Every structure is written in C-alpha cells, then in structure tokens.
Amino acid sequence: MVETAAITPPPVKAAAPVRPRDPAGLAQWLLVALYIDLAADSLSAVADALDLGFVGRIDPDTPASFGEALPGEGWIGVFQGLSALAQTLIFLVAGFLCLKWIYRMSLNAHALAVAPDMKISPAWGVGWFFVPFASLWKPFQGVRESWQVSAASGGPDWHLLPVPGLLRWWWGLWLASNIVGNVSLRLQMNATTAGELMLSGSLSLLQDIANVPLDVLFIFVVRRLTALQVGALSQRVFD
What we know:
By secondary structure, this protein is an all-alpha fold. The protein is built from 6 helices and no strands. It has one domain.
C-alpha cells in the first residue's frame, strides 16, 4: 500500500501592520495654504461686489455672455478675472494638500484603532470626494472616524464619542458653498443678458462670502484634529 504524504498549504503571510506617520509637518503646509486661500476668497468677494455694482447700473436686457467684458467694465472686469484665476489656482493647491492630510489622518487612525472596525479606508477617505451623491456624506464619515479614533486614542469604544459641532458646521458650509457655486456656474455659462449675469454674479458673491467662514472653520478642524492625533501617537515611533 502506497502512503501519500499530506500536503501542507503554505503559511499565509499576515498583513503588514499600518505604521503611523507624523501629521504635524503636512498640517503646517495645509494651514499656510488655507490662510492664503482665505485671503484669495476675501479678495474675490471684493471683486465680485465691485462687478455687481457695475452690472447693476446697466439695463438688464443688455446682451451679455460669460467671459466677455461689458462695455465700460474696464479695470473691474480685469480685476475680477485675475482674482478668480488666483482663487482657482490656490484652491487646487490647498485642495491637494487637504486630500493628502485627510489620507494621513485616516491612515494614522487605522494604526491607532484597537478594534479594526472603521468603515472608511484611507484611500476611500479621499476617493469618496469624487463619487457623485456619495460625496455628500461619505467624506464627512471618514473625517469623523479619524476624529473619534484620535480623540479616544484608539480605544475600542471610539465610536461612542460624540461628534463635535465644529465638524458638522464645517461640512454643512462645504456642501452649501459647493451647491451655490455649481448653480452660479451653470447660470453664468448660459447667461445671455446683463440681468442673468447679475443673478449668477450674486450667487458667486454669496459663495465667496460663505468660503470665508468655511476656511476659518477648516483651519480649526485641521489644528484640533492634528493636535488630537499627535497626542494619541506621542508614544509611537513615526516613519
């Protein structure tokens, strides 16, 4: 009788533990970008207000279109265009740093959490921003989890910690600003008269005004969450 040797499956490699990374340096760069963005939003609000004052003195039925200066608009139109360009460029830089910071916060939270029951991964903490409809609440869920885990120092009951109003106000303003901005842009692209530009410009000014407290609130979020996480990771060795 021929004996067959038992086949032992190869051992499964355990997943490498997530190693935390120091968030302080990245947070400082993000804060610098946010302060510059705050100044750019304030400047853009001034430019929009000046342009609205000019458009308001023109017959609402005057033919007009987005991107074309109205007769006599002169330096106001140039000022508004340059401020809008600066605002866009700074937003892109600040947005990149923001997403990188959110990823870092989530990565460290996953390293801290004793119970691996976080629902949003670091990659999806960023990815949900680009998914229609889900972007309305999923990114907030990721930041909320990072906050709770950091505040609980990774303890198993982190999900029981209350969500601070600071986070809710920040996210509410973020949604409001984006909704108003999208409506304003659609109206601007389809405008054919000075009256329609007046309406879209008013919404653009409203968005710029909302962006000022939005920047301020997010600065507080970045400072507070970074401090919570640095404290929770103070006994760990950073990469």
